[in-house]
UniProtKB/TrEMBL annotation:
<dbReference type="InterPro" id="IPR012340">
    <property type="entry name" value="NA-bd_OB-fold"/>
</dbReference>
<feature type="region of interest" description="Disordered">
    <location>
        <begin position="761"/>
        <end position="790"/>
    </location>
</feature>
<dbReference type="InterPro" id="IPR040476">
    <property type="entry name" value="CSD2"/>
</dbReference>
<dbReference type="InterPro" id="IPR003029">
    <property type="entry name" value="S1_domain"/>
</dbReference>
<feature type="region of interest" description="Disordered">
    <location>
        <begin position="1"/>
        <end position="28"/>
    </location>
</feature>
<dbReference type="Pfam" id="PF17876">
    <property type="entry name" value="CSD2"/>
</dbReference>
<protein>
    <recommendedName>
        <fullName>Ribonuclease R</fullName>
        <ecNumber>3.1.13.1</ecNumber>
    </recommendedName>
</protein>
<feature type="compositionally biased region" description="Basic residues">
    <location>
        <begin position="765"/>
        <end position="790"/>
    </location>
</feature>
<comment type="similarity">
    <text>Belongs to the RNR ribonuclease family. RNase R subfamily.</text>
</comment>
<dbReference type="InterPro" id="IPR050180">
    <property type="entry name" value="RNR_Ribonuclease"/>
</dbReference>
<dbReference type="Pfam" id="PF00773">
    <property type="entry name" value="RNB"/>
</dbReference>
<keyword id="KW-0378">Hydrolase</keyword>
<feature type="domain" description="S1 motif">
    <location>
        <begin position="672"/>
        <end position="740"/>
    </location>
</feature>
<dbReference type="GO" id="GO:0003723">
    <property type="term" value="F:RNA binding"/>
</dbReference>
<dbReference type="GO" id="GO:0008859">
    <property type="term" value="F:exoribonuclease II activity"/>
</dbReference>
<keyword id="KW-0963">Cytoplasm</keyword>
<dbReference type="Pfam" id="PF00575">
    <property type="entry name" value="S1"/>
</dbReference>
């Protein structure tokens, strides 16, 4: 990675800039009125953070203003107040202005300005913050930059990792950016369904909810026929009429099996075809040797996975601790496939795995991070076959406290491959021919160990949300058969808790060895989100204590109060919305949801690149032989963490959109039918309605709710009529009619059949206070959002 010139703040109040001659990386700003060693004003703090996003941590701020002792404490209190007022928010370990971009951001290059310079926008941007800010891309290497090789060069449609700086020219984009790395090329292509038109021409019907129809001239059809799913690029722009497009590739018939998941794969730019060099390396791989390995092939480790799992990357075993110093204690062993032996740093396999970041799971297919020769064969812990693994032996006291652990590089042989249902049935008294002989020696000790570990989990009190996960079962032709909620078994919980503790051990060991790694971090809810949740809960008579030191068990208390009430689902959803998103980072802030201070993903290296990095770090720091982490990797951990966090969000979005499209296809023949639903979201534009029986949701535009003026109340999560006082709140049970289904966009539009209910006194008081002029929006009949908007 190239080195970025350091910046300094001149205590005399002169214009801050980088040492030496300023370049484009450090735009000039107006001078700040700074007195070195004195606590600056709130306005100066906010201005400094806006102009120096890369120096916006509490530590850097204290250093920049020369604060010590009591002044540092006062600074901390000031920053907490600014957070509580919504003037600042946390981004990883730094502070940013709300709506501002963090110092390192993933951008999609979307267009050019009038001078031909590239303009990008953040790849991830919350819809409730409006239009994503524009960023001017600096292509050339900045003056005085030190580093090896040429600066990365990007083009339209590319996705890049970039260093962000506030812009000098206030008349243009708010930010400038220097390219750190090009992540994906040519993301500007669009996808849609080709419809033949007279004269050999065609039309492109968009698959995106906000997509636009395009015209395809006869010479640009690329051999597509009616009903083909095609990828296109804009051929030319006109001042009037529809855009012209050119077919780049024909994906296949939109009516074919697996076409729905292919839409998401192409729309999100998910790599799904392994290059020849990657396949060749995988095919040429040989089974691992015993070098630097302990022989554990006699240890009866078993795998417990979904019944349809094709790869098995974790195995478990438990026994009573024979040590007299640990009465009632247990020893739990978790063995994880040794992917680091086969996927070496900077090899074709490694570069492709990083490009993908993780495996992506659709109802009809899996897009794996690694080729099948690696994931389903050499690294899969198959029953009765010798396989290399990294294992951790963990000792727990009778109270469930972890009192020690050791890591080992081993050769193992799985004693059995079981499904969750199969293992649970045996414990519940219904063993089969396979599980019967292993019930006493293997399964019962595992369940006993889980009961011991559960005591520690109950004491730790991680966040316990009750959000059932729905699964889609497909027919042989790829269409939806049924949607169901699979039961949550103790077998699931057992494996989950053992994997969590193995991940904790990995982080603890690497920290003790002072080895760089990638943590799985989860920040606590921002003060602004806490306040929204607090106001909402107050309408239900549930209190949430104020303060910035919230813990997971604080939310568990709220969930317990709502359990068994009509508000249970609604409260669970609001608590979930108040939480931050978990990401990967080389800087540790702990995991709020799990209530753990040290946590790193270690247990799924077949399907997550973060786990592969942790494996390499363990191999290298513990002297386990070949396949350890390299110095180049250690230097790039910031970039790697940012990339794989982005790829994880990409996978989640693709999986969710595929389910939406499948359900929309499933319901497209039932226009006009009535459905029982629940208000799952309230916005200024209307209501989101979830159909619990289908795992889908759709939209009711506010313009179709009636003739009253409806006012959006964020605190109460309600839309209520100004005149009648009737309205709808989050969690309300309603009846809706399906008015429109757009299968390719995955969009459903409903008409509300249920009458609004009388709003609580607090909501009516909200109207009388006239607060709609301070952010609450009134929608008049006839103002309608784009069709299918979610």
């Amino acid at each position: 990675m190239s080195r970025i010139p350091r910046e300094r703040t001149n205590p005399a109040g002169k214009r801050p800039g980088k040492i030496g001659r300023p370049g484009k990386d450090a735009p000039a700003v107006e001078p700040l009125n700074i007195v070195h060693g004195a606590l600056p004003s709130r306005e100066v703090i906010l201005r400094f953070i806006a102009d120096h996003p890369q120096k916006a941590s509490k530590r850097e701020l204290a250093k920049a203003f020369g604060l010590k002792g009591d002044s540092r404490v006062e600074l901390k209190h000031m920053l907490q107040e600014l957070e509580q007022e919504g003037m600042l928010q946390k981004s990883r370990k730094s502070l940013i202005r709300p709506g501002a971009l963090p110092p390192v951001t993933v951008l999609d290059i979307t267009t050019r300005d009038k001078d031909g310079d590239l303009i990008g926008r953040p790849a991830e941007w919350p819809e409730d913050q409006g239009v994503a800010p524009a960023v001017a891309i600096r292509q050339q290497s900045p003056a005085g930059r030190q580093g090896k090789g040429k600066a990365p060069v990007a083009g339209l449609g590319d996705r890049i990792l970039a260093k962000i700086f506030p812009a000098v020219d206030r008349g243009g984009p708010a930010y400038t950016a220097r390219i750190i790395k090009v992540i994906d090329r040519r993301r500007g292509a669009s996808m849609g369904v080709f419809r033949a038109a007279p004269g050999g021409a065609g039309r492109l019907l968009p698959i995106e909810r906000r997509g636009e129809e395009m015209v395809i001239d006869p010479e640009f059809t690329g051999g597509a026929v009616d009903g083909d799913l095609v990828e296109v690029e804009i051929a030319r722009l006109g001042r009037f009429g529809l855009q012209r497009a050119k077919v780049l590739s024909v994906v296949g018939s939109v009516g074919s099996e697996k076409a729905i998941s292919m839409i998401a794969i192409h729309a999100h730019g998910i790599p799904h075809v392994f290059p020849p060099a990657v396949i060749a390396e995988a095919e040429e791989a040989k089974p691992a040797t015993m070098s630097h390995r302990e022989d554990w092939r006699d240890v009866p480790l078993i795998t417990i996975d979904p019944a349809d799992a094709k790869d098995h990357d974790d195995a478990v075993y438990a026994e009573l601790d024979p040590s007299p110093d640990n009465p009632g204690g247990v020893i739990v062993t978790v063995a994880i496939a040794d992917v680091s032996w086969y996927v070496r740093p900077n090899s074709p396999l490694d570069r492709e795995a990083l490009k993908r970041g993780n495996s992506v799971y659709f109802p009809d297919r899996v897009v794996p991070m690694l080729p099948e020769r690696i994931s389903n064969d050499l690294c899969s812990l198959k029953e009765g076959v010798g396989r290399p693994a990294l294992a951790v032996r963990m000792s727990f006291s009778g109270e469930g406290r972890k009192i020690g652990h050791t890591f080992h590089r081993i050769m193992m042989k799985s004693a059995a491959k079981l499904s969750y249902q199969q293992a649970q049935a045996a414990i519940d008294g219904n063993p089969d021919d396979k599980t019967g002989p292993m019930l006493e020696p293997i399964l019962k000790p595992l369940w006993h160990a889980y009961e011991v570990m559960k005591r520690g989990r109950d004491r730790r009190q991680p966040l316990e949300l009750d959000m059932p996960e729905r699964k889609i079962l497909l027919k042989p032709d790829g269409t939806v058969d049924r949607v169901f909620v699979p039961p949550r078994l103790d077998a699931h919980k057992l494996i989950e808790e053992m994997m969590i503790q193995a991940n904790v051990c990995a982080a603890e060991t690497l920290e003790k060895k002072r080895q760089s790694l990638i943590y799985r971090i989860h920040d606590g809810p921002t003060l602004a989100k806490q306040e929204i949740l607090r106001e909402f809960l107050a309408t239900l008579g549930i209190s949430l204590a104020k303060g910035g030191n919230m813990r997971a068990n604080s939310f568990n208390g709220i969930l317990a109060k709502a359990e068994g009430t009509a508000h249970q689902t609604m409260v669970n959803e609001m608590v979930l919305r108040s939480q931050s998103q978990a990401i990967y980072s080389p800087e540790n802030i702990g995991h709020f949801g799990l209530n753990l201070m040290k946590y790193a993903h270690f247990t799924s290296p077949i399907r997550r690149y973060a786990d592969l990095i942790v494996h390499r770090a363990l191999v290298g720091s513990l002297g386990f032989g070949e396949g350890g982490i390299t110095t180049d990797e250690e230097a790039a951990l910031d970039d790697i963490a940012a990339e794989i966090s982005t790829f994880e969000r990409r996978a989640m979005a693709a999986e969710r959109e595929t389910i939406d499209r499948l359900i929309a296809h499933h319901l497209s023949t039932r226009i006009g039918e009535e459905f029982a639903g629940r208000v799952s979201g309230v916005t200024k534009s209307g209501l989101f309605i979830a159909l619990p029986d289908y795992g889908a949701d759709g939209f009711v535009p506010i313009s179709t709710l009636g003739t009253d003026y409806f006012i959006y109340d964020e605190a109460h999560q309600a839309l209520s009529g100004e005149k009648t006082g009737l309205g709808y709140r989050l969690g309300d049970s309603v009846t809706v009619k399906l008015a429109e289904a757009i299968p390719l966009a995955g969009a459903l539009r409903f008409e509300m059949l249920s009458e609004g209910r009388e709003m609580p006194t607090a909501v009516r008081s909200f109207h009388k206070a006239g607060r709609r002029d301070r952010g609450q929006v009134r929608k008049k009949p006839g103002t309608r959002p784009p069709r299918g908007r979610r």
